[in-house]
């Protein structure tokens, strides 16, 4: 039987079997994306800022900090944005002191009996375990406290802190506040006193006063960042206590940017974010 394909030539195409040419392969989209530089992202962030898309700009800057940790400009720019936002928040949400108003930071050393007794009653209600307080709510303690105050007129910041710690340990947060506030002017222990003052106010269920008291420290760029984060953290806690979840998240995110892993910041942000979502429903 004749093979009908015999003698038939199949053209394989010499051009296809010749030596391969030096043709550069096309780059994938992923490869092109990987080549996006930190400068490109920084420019994008500035464009977003110019368009008023501040949150998107901050996200872009955080992306740079993760992808290009050696580029310090991103962190510096993010901090500038956060500083301006902090000032704006305090200007808009914290009432300014009017001329003639009593200075909230002035120490009032002369406490009358009614004031001390009223504060003591509040503290005892706030104490997590009232059985820890080793005295009865009576005139004896009021007399003791007033006598102690009169003897500590010229006490040092350290002495005030020690007394504040003792009152704090008893759960008497309101009375502890007064001692910590008086110690803020101490040159060596002032920042310690301010932090304890804010924390005591928070536990005494006075969050708005926390925001007022810590505002100067939150905005003071001369304080080293790690130390300043403590005041920003407490401010965030105060906003959380007031159920202003948006501002709470804002301040806590600043802490997380400045000092990653600070206290319970990450867990608290997650918890507040969840509650914030539920509150908006």
Please explain how this structure is put together:
It contains 14 helices and no strands. Helix 5 (72-93) packs antiparallel against helix 13 (245-258), helix 10 (190-203) packs antiparallel against helix 11 and helix 12 runs antiparallel to helix 13 (245-258). The longest helix has 22 residues, at 72-93. Mean pLDDT is 74; it is low at 12-20, 22-34, 95-113 and 126-138. It has 281 residues and is mainly α. It has three domains: 37-93, no CATH class; 103-205, no CATH class; 211-281, Serine Threonine Protein Phosphatase 5, Tetratricopeptide repeat (Alpha Horseshoe). Helix content is 65%, strand content 0%. It has helices at 14-17, 29-34, 38-50, 54-67, 72-93, 113-126, 139-151, 157-169, 173-183, 190-203, 207-219, 225-241, 245-258, 265-280.
What topology does this entry show?
Layout: H1 14-17, H2 29-34, H3 38-50, H4 54-67, H5 72-93, H6 113-126, H7 139-151, H8 157-169, H9 173-183, H10 190-203, H11 207-219, H12 225-241, H13 245-258, H14 265-280
Helix pairs in contact: 3-4, 4-5, 5-13, 8-9, 9-10, 10-11, 10-12, 11-12, 12-13, 13-14
């Amino acid at each position: 039987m004749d093979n009908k394909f015999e003698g038939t030539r199949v053209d394989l195409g010499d051009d296809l079997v010749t030596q391969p040419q030096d043709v550069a392969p096309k780059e994938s989209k992923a490869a092109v994306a990987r080549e996006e530089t930190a400068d490109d992202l920084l420019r994008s962030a500035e464009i977003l800022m110019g368009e008023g898309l501040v949150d998107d700009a901050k996200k872009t800057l955080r992306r740079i900090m993760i992808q290009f940790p050696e580029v310090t400009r991103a962190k510096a720019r993010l901090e500038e944005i956060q500083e301006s936002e902090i000032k704006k928040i305090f200007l808009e949400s914290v009432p300014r002191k009017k001329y003639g108003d009593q200075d909230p930071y002035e120490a009032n050393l002369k406490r009358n009996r009614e004031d001390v007794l009223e504060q003591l009653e509040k503290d005892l209600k706030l104490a997590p375990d009232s059985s820890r307080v080793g005295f009865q709510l009576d005139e004896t303690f009021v007399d003791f406290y007033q006598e102690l105050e009169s003897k500590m007129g010229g006490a040092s910041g350290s002495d005030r802190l020690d007394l504040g710690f003792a009152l704090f340990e008893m759960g008497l947060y309101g009375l502890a506040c007064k001692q910590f506030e008086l110690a803020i002017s101490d040159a060596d222990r002032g920042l310690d006193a301010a932090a304890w003052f804010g924390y005591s106010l928070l536990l005494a269920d006075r969050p708005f006063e926390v925001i007022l008291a810590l505002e100067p420290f939150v905005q003071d760029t001369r304080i080293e960042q790690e130390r300043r984060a403590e005041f920003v953290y407490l401010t965030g806690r105060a906003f959380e206590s007031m159920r202003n979840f948006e501002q709470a998240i804002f301040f806590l995110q600043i802490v997380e940017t400045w000092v990653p892993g600070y206290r319970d910041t990450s867990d608290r942000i997650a918890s507040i974010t969840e509650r914030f979502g539920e509150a908006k429903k």
